[in-house]
Amino acid sequence: MNQIKALFVVGCSLLGMLASCPIQAQDQQEPGRGEIRDTEFIIRKDRVLSLPRQSRVFEKSPSLPPVAATTSFSYQVKDFFVPLEPVVLETQAYQKPFPRPAYGQTPGNAKLGFGNYSSPLIHLDYHHLPDSEKTYGLHLKHQGFYTGPVDGSNSAEDHTEVGLSGSLFRDFLELYGNLDFERDMYHFYGYTPDPEISVPQDSIRQVFNTLKTRLGIKRIDRSEPFDYGASLSLRLFNDRYAARESEALVKVRALFRASENLKGGIDSRLAFTSPSDQNYEAINRNYFKLHPYAQYTKDGLHVEVGANVIHENDIVPNKLKEFYVFPSAFLSYHVVPQIGAYARYEGDVKRNTYYDFVMENPFLGPSDQLRNTVQNYLVDAGISGKINGETNYEVGLRYGDYTNMHFYGNNMADSTRFQLIYDNNTRVMEYHATLDYKFEQFYQLQASAQYFQYTLDEINSAWHRPEWEIHINNTFTPDPKWTIHANMHALGGIQAINLASDSQRKLSPILDLHLSVDYAFTEKFSAFLQGNNLLNQSYERFNYYPVRSIQVIGGIGFKF
């Protein structure tokens, strides 16, 4: 305590000394800067500082008595469950309605025309459009050529088609069907007219009647992982003589997409055919084919491998077996869309019916025997691609080995008719090329060329098969009102044989120019003009059967 007092006295002395310094400085001269002056400090211990007494409070504030609760509160929480089922939301993709353009809403169109060779044309197509759950259609066509190139009406022909079709659409399926009738009339006019000898027209007339029906089912969305389809077809065929043929054909296909790049499937075909003709009674020709396959596609690479499993019961002299298993493979690769390469290998059994033969050669007479063609193997390789994004091309080479390939020769009993000729083993080398060019909406070109070399076993030549063939199709659309088609079909190197006289001849090359012009006066009314064989050639596709020379048909067309 004494130390504190002493320090306090010293502090006060210092303050007093500092206070007196300014007064002395007024009387004395201010010393120079940095000079050390003499100073005296006096410390006095007898001085005592005293402070007044201050009262202090040492008692604490009394605490308040605790408040006692008079009521106890208790809470009970109860769960209330409402028996409501969860809300189910049915969602579906919104389909924006795209109205059909006015020109696409006409359900029907018709053509009426007439030309030289007494050739009327009637064509009607109607397709019901408004109903989204079902659709149906009608097809009618009749075209006649009631005079011909040889002996007037004795070389006439006409063709009539009547067809009904319909479809029912369900959630995922389409049920479809059709019923068709075809009538084709020809004459066996392959003779040399004699003014002194009249050939009765009825004695050489040939008429084919075909009734066909089909019922089928298929998926509407073909992009689903699993796709399928099936159909049942029935056909009844007869001609004006002794040929008859009935057929039942079942087709079933199934496809499974394992991923975007990998898919596989099975195609099957089962046919029961019963033909009869002048030289044989009704027989049963059964045919079954199963084609399993797998495909892989990625980055310009396409690979497909599979097999053709076939059973057929034809009885032929050179037949070795009824059950066949042939491998099939296809490979293509495009480094860039402009160029790529492909290769194919496949064995098969080509099914042939009497109906197929007469659609190819309508002057076929009684047949001795119907045979399927066994394709022992076929190798096809080439290149394909695009040029400037407008031209597609393909150039390749095919080589095949066949058993029972069919050819035609003039009948041994009647040279105005033809009969089938089979070769035991035929090897065919084929050079082929195709071209497709499109320039905006103005012009489109489609062209193809083929050259064949035959190596035969039992016959001398590939009778009535061309050595080369060229197709050129041009389509011009200068404006929406005009549509012009200018096409050319050329083939040559055809060797013919007359089995009755055992004579052979080479037919002249065929060059057929076709021109078709359509002009639309309005959206529903138009006119057309068609010309065939504009070079006025009297060529023969089949021996002794010259075709009509220049033929022109004109008429009108309208939509409703």
Automatic annotation (TrEMBL):
Residues 1-25 form the signal peptide. Transmembrane segments: none annotated. It is found in: Cell outer membrane. The keyword Membrane applies. GO terms for cellular component: cell outer membrane. Keywords: Cell outer membrane, Membrane, Receptor, Signal. This is TonB dependent receptor. It comes from Cyclobacterium lianum.
